[in-house]
Design goal:
alpha+beta; 50% helix; single chain; 222 residues; five-stranded antiparallel sheet
Length: 222
Amino acid sequence: MPGFPLAPADSVGHDAFTSLVSLPRPVCVYDDRRQLVLTNPALADLVGYRSDEFDRVDLAELMHPSDAPRWFGLVRGVLDTGTSDAGYARVRHRNGNWLWAHGFASTFTSADTRFVVLVWQDRTDEVWNNPRLLDKAGVASADVVRSRAIIEQAKGALMLVYSISADAAFDLLTWRSQETNTKIRVIADQLVLAFGDEIHTPASFRDRFDALLLTAHERHRR
């Protein structure tokens, strides 16, 4: 698999190249041999690279090994049938985190050659909030569900300690992830473990919470 050239292949017309490279959304293009021939700077931005660095990055190193075969099969199917298709794939950001990227694939013809253009969008937040989005894409979502459960526990701890909203708690986790170049799931997992081992609530707090738990059904009826 070649790197990500930021110049058009000989078989891609100048007008086609100009229109694709200027799109504000991340784009990559494969030729009829399923070779990557074109990307635009927005794709580099998606995964945290400068444009002048991105041509030395290999797509196979960015895409999750479990997702790559399905995506290369999707590209082949779009080339063979001429129809559009779409799905999800995990793509590694430069900071080490995995993004859930949604790709829409369609074909176009230039200089009598058929190409597949993939338009990408970062849908990570949506996938965390609704792992069932992956079901139609044929992606096993069990890992996502487990990771999401850990993240929700960590968010709950942050919400309790700092009296903040769920969104603010997730922003805190994201900030620490980016600052330390550590996956959000790992940050959340370690925070939950440490919270149970090192944070001890006073008996008066537990007694008060016991009362709230035992009367929650009555509060609901009020």
